[in-house]
Amino acid sequence: MPSAARQLVSNMLSFLSSPSPQNNVSEKGASFSTPQANRKNKVNGSRRMSDSNNVAYSNGKAPFEGNIEKWEPNVYEKELLRRTWSDEFDNLYELGSAIYCYIFDHNPNCKQLFPFISKYQGDEWKESKEFRSQALKFVQTLAQVVKNIYHMERTESFLYTVGQKHVKFADRGFKHEYWDIFQDAMEFALEHRLSIMTDLDDNQKKDAVTVWRTLALYTTVHMRNGFIDGLKGVNRFPPLV
């Protein structure tokens, strides 16, 4: 990867290396507030997390039943997110690339949202500067959410605004249903990343997968809200005057 681009992204994401409140992630008996983010729980149905098929967490706690829009991870969950997130450039690019490759493989129609792809033969677009830029944009959104896991009140309006900005892609065929494939892609890429981590035991990996699935759902629900409201000309978070 170009050194200038590497340094730019490293600088933009350096905030993730700032100290966070101390807590032992491996603390036994830590309680979970995280709802189980199953793939079948999409759109409005996903906003109330009450699935009788959900299994208990590794600590024996039952899944949380609540409004995903107001999800507040507890201390243990926040530390799991921090511990399993990396702002290293190559990791960020690989994650973003995996997300978009999953999207394009499972819904090729999404390629029409990115006209630059048509300029390249076959899969050459995967090595293009446009694709690298797009892949990094998405993980920067995730990075911003991770940055604010101790200030969740900031994330709702941020993600809502990101969703509103996607209204400009409606003319290219972007539909609110596409948020589902984005959620699935995040879950797939993040689960693979967790599966190869060596500093977590099996229970911690299972718990981390649950937390990241929930964060993926939380993220897409708020972006979807912003997109749908944007199409209607509505803004739940008007700029301060």
TrEMBL record:
Coiled coil spans: none
Keyword check for Heme: yes
Any one Pfam family match given in the protein's UniProt record, by short name: Globin
Polar residues bias locations: 18-38
UniProt-annotated stretches for the region Disordered: 18-56
InterPro entries reported in the protein's UniProt record: Globin, Globin-like_sf, Globin/Proto, Mb-like_M, Oxidative_stress_globin-like
Span of domain Globin: 72-205
MF annotations from Gene Ontology: heme binding; oxygen binding; oxygen carrier activity
Keywords of this entry: Heme, Iron, Metal-binding, Oxygen transport, Transport
Domain of life: Eukaryota
Gene3D superfamilies tied to this protein: Globins (1.10.490.10)
Family to which the UniProt record says this protein belongs: Belongs to the globin family.
Name of the molecule in the record: Globin domain-containing protein
